[in-house]
Every structure is written in C-alpha cells, then in structure tokens.
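During the second half of the funding period, the structural biology subgroup turned its attention to how the target accommodates small molecules. The most pressing case was adenosine-5'-diphosphate, which had performed well in the primary screen but for which no bound structure existed. We therefore specified the complex as follows and requested a full 3D prediction, including the ligand pose.
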Amino acid sequence: MPETPEQSAADRFDTVLIANRGEIAARIQRACRELGLKTVAICSEADRQAPYGKTADSFLCIGPSTAAKSYLNQDAILLAARLAGAGAIHPGYGFLSENAAFADAVEKAGLTFIGPTASSIATMGDKISAKRAMMMAGVPCVPGPDTALPDEPATIERIALEIGYPVIIKAAGGGGGRGMRVVPKADLLHEAIALTREEARKAFGSPSLYMEKFLEHPRHIEIQVICDDHGNAVWLGHRDCSMQRRHQKVVEEAPAAGIAPDIIQPVGLACAEACLQIGYRGVGTFEFLYEDGAFYFIEMNTRLQVEHPVTELTSGVDIVQAQIRAAQGHVLDLTQGDVTCEGHSFECRINAEDPETFLPSAGVVTHLALPAGPGIRVDTHIHAGYKVSPYYDSLIAKLIVHAPTRAEAMARMREALAGTEVEGISTNIPFLRALFEDGAFAQGETDIHYLEQWLKLRRAA
Ligand code: ADP
C-alpha cells in the first residue's frame, strides 16, 4: 500500500537544529518539544549562558561573538547539524532565514529547511520578481511597472510621469528599510536614481532599481499565511504594524482596526491563492500599504516574523508548530472555514535601548519582574543575571496581550507594562508606557508616520 502523506511525514526528521538566538530560539525550542521533537541549540561565544542551551538536547558553540562568524556561518551551522544528528534546521527570523543559498545548502546536505524552497525565497527576495509574481496572481500592488528601471533618462522620466509624482525609487534587493528614496518632483529624479543605484550596488550587490507611486499616508497592514506541501493554503487574519520608527516596527496588533471584513477578505484570499500559484510552503507574510480603503502589496517575508504572536492569540493557531508540521510534510489540519479570529491582541517589542535616544544599552540585568495574568504572554530568553551583549539586535522580550476588544487589550497592555521591571540596563519601557497613554493611538487607524511625528512633538515639548 502506498504511504499516506501523514505516514511519511513522521519519518522526515525527529531532531531540529535552531539556527538562531534570543527570544525566538527559546520560542522555537518550546514548539519543538511540545511536538515531541529533540532540539539542538547553537550559540556564539557571547551567548554561552543562553537559557535555551540548558534545556536543549544538544548545545554547541559554533563560533565567535560577531554574527558573521557564528549565526551567519553556514558551514559551521551545517557541521553542527551533522555532529548533533539533526534532521532539520529552523532558521528563525533575521540571520539566514531569507537566504536562498542557505536553504539550498541545507537541502543538499540531506536535511529539511524549515521554510519555503530556495526558489520561493529567491523569487520573493527580489522585490521586482516578487511584484511580478503577485501581479500575476491577482494581488493588488503599488502602481508602477514590475520591471527594472532602464538606463535611458527619457524613458525613466516617462515612467515617473505615468505613475505621477511623488514616486519612490527602490532597490530590487533592498531590505531593512534601506535602499529607498522618495522623489517629490521631476527635477530631483535623476539625482535620486544615481544615489539609490550606487547605494544598492554597495549594500545589496545589485544596482537593479524599480519605481512606484509613493503613498503619503498609508498604514502598514500584513496578512499571515500558512501552507502545506499538498496544495493547501490558508490566511490567518491581518495585523497592523504601522507603529514604526525608522521603518522598524515597535508595536503590532491584530486585527488591524477599522477595516471591514468585506474589504480585507478578497485580499486574504488572493494571498492564499498566490501561495498555491508559486508553490509556497510553510509560513509567510504578505506586507501591504493601505490607504483610502485600498491595499497595495509591497513585499513578502518568507519566514516566521517577530510579530507572529498577535496572530497566534487571535486565531488560536500555534504558528511555529504549524510551520514545523508543514516542513515535516503533514497535511494542514485546518481549512479556511476553520479560521476564526477573536478579540484583539497587541505586542510591544521591549528593546535594550535608551528610551530617549534609542541607543543600544548592553550590560547585566540586575532585576527582572515580568507581568502575569489572564491574556498576558511574555516571549523572552532573559532572566535576572542575564548579560545583554552588544553584538546583536536589541530585542530582549516581547510583551503580548489579548482581550475581547481593542480598548480592553490597550488597558491590559498598560497594566502589563506597569508590571514590567528591568534594571541594570536601559529599556524602551518608559517610551512604550507613554505611547499606550496616547489618545490618537487609542482611537486607532494611525498611519506609518504617526510614531515619528509623536516623538518629534514629545521632544519639542
Ligand atoms: P524593506 O524590505 O526594506 O522593509 P519595504 O518594501 O517593506 O522595505 O518598505 C519598508 C517601508 O518603507 C514600508 O513599511 C513603508 O513605510 C515604506 N514604503 C515602501 N514602499 C512605499 C511606497 N510605495 N509608498 C510609501 N511608503 C513606502
């Protein structure tokens, strides 16, 4: 008798190497253990004291503190997987999570990469090919061509006029909020292109650029998807991540406030359909700008995201477990009709940084008190005595709340923030407390520029 997908899935792997650090390494380890899988934790020299190292089945130091020599060292990670007998690698977010060459190397080593195929990562990692794939799949995109900008000045000018100023010039290989330039009017066009092209060449190794309409007051709304290897894809509702400083998300919520189901529904369905068209596997996020009632695709993240917990709390789906099960080859155990989103959730990113200057703050946590109670979740790897090192991202914890309504979730977050104490290092907690007292934020539907404007006003006061 031929094996069913469920029978063969169980054999695919029983040990997972977690190629990451910090809160997400702890989160993935929990998901693996709950699924009965063994874990291999890795660390750099700076992270030898990581608590998830103690609870892993194996714990290997793979290199020096600088990420380039440890968490980004593909050969060292593959060697660790071989030594520890791992059958799969979970890349988490950041580091190698969206590196198509790494996904390919993992599969070539006979291991499972817990994520989409290398070719999906490559298609979505190039913003022009991603836009083209989304346009073909019927996902609404920002007005502008799905091709790279040509060299002839006259053609470029014509494209800008057709789109209409202001336009934005973006690097096809850009990421992390870099490699973009807004052009308000025609006489600044060529200089902006020359500067962005040079930047793109240096930072992303490719001078390829494209142009699209610059939306002036959008919100950042994203859609979480999960797919299996058997032609099933569902979307798990939406999130609003408009509270950004320097294009970095600070607070996220689910669902996005004030968006009627009949407006979001077709977009969510188009995302799930697009996944099927491109043969996508695992979890992913479609990011959109939303302005005047319309959605415009900007990019797809082909990995687990920092803000996945707000969707977990509203949908009741354990996204990390679902991701691992999809990589094992299991059939998705929910259909679109099963997905219901209840209540409202907020996530605050707690960073080791000065609350006024936002400069990173390293050192030993001398005292830690974390909030607890109904509807409160804390994802973290730190404890009293933990040494926050200066080598990595400053995220030390995520504080997540869930309540029946947005107003109740805000009140719950205020209480949770009041009950969070971190001493020995500076954190952005005072800033988050002030933000959750803000009237316009409480009203909801603020745009992506709101936080920067709010900070400017606060400084001026
Ligand atoms: P990255 O990969 O660097 O994060 P994105 O394409 O996701 O780049 O864009 C990052 C941010 O830049 C968006 O959240 C938004 O704030 C801004 N942005 C990008 N494209 C546009 C656009 N067409 N109009 C207005 N703002 C944009």
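Two results from this model are relevant to the next phase. The pocket of adenosine-5'-diphosphate is lined by residues 142, 168, 174-178, 180, 212-215, 218, 220, 247, 287, 289, 298-299, 448 (CB under 6 Å). The longest strand covers residues 233-245.
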